[in-house]
Amino acid sequence: MQWRVSIPPLTRVLLALLVALSVSYQALRFGGDADLVTGHYLALIPQWALFTPWVYFTASYSEQNILTFLIAGATILFGGKYLERAWGSLEFGKLVVIQGSVALQGAFIVAFKQLVPEHTVTILRGALKIRVKHFPSLFLAANSLSGILLGTDTALVLAWVGFLTSWTYLRFYKTQPDLSSASTGGSQLRGDASETFAFAYFWPDAIQSPIAAIADGIYNALVALRICTPFSVEDVEMGNEQATARGEGGLLNHDGSRSGRNKQEESERRRALALKALDQRLQAASTNNKPQPTISQSSASSGAVNTATPGTEERPDQN
Predict the structure, then answer these.
(1) Nearest to 318 by CA among 239, 229, 238, 231
(2) pLDDT-derived band of residue 241, with 50, 70 and 90 as boundaries?
């Protein structure tokens, strides 16, 4: 029986770029003046990049050692295969085009958190079990500590850039089909307003409240500047339905089909998280349920009324 590895087209292109540019980097490095040659043609060095603007692209896939090359290759191969099949080449390409290798790892982890947050990854034959929803915080913590202790400050910055860029794109801009049971077919949603994809839910439970408070403060400032507009209640409810539908769909197999394994378990976990978020909203609403004056026309036209729930980020103004 012939063994065949099925890799989607854009993922194949990214792997080919990684191999070609990394090999070229090493060939140029050892074939001439290392600093001059690699700096001019492949590496990103600020004082030279103005005259060789292509390095903003080539530097993203020119790995300088075997360890980072293997990590980048595994990220593109396994993460790219899954996301390209789940989203299609076009949407996957939109996410890839603005990321480098370390930033791409952060972007993929955020995407997995959106798609299968309650899936458990088993390592060392069950000795270590980690849920996908914890990957982003672990990834950022590891890169932050590495940047501070080992001096890998470039990877630190790229990790945060990849995380924030991916979350912003998926939260506010990415279009996706309506998976809810109420869908009439063919409708598209923009962004992901679900409460479990809010910024605070990327972090451990113990620190979610202060992070949510900080996120709300940033939102209020952006609203005052008329940069952000809030998600409506309907947007949030639809986002929660989408998250539940994704959980019930199960994992994506290598042939594009959905796996039923752990599907019920993941669905129950998502429902529990949604109920927890709903309970927090109801408690906040009951606390603030006091007679309030009618909003004047001037206040309504100012757009400064905050209808968002605690811990839920809002959609940036598309204008």
Answers:
(1) 229
(2) confident
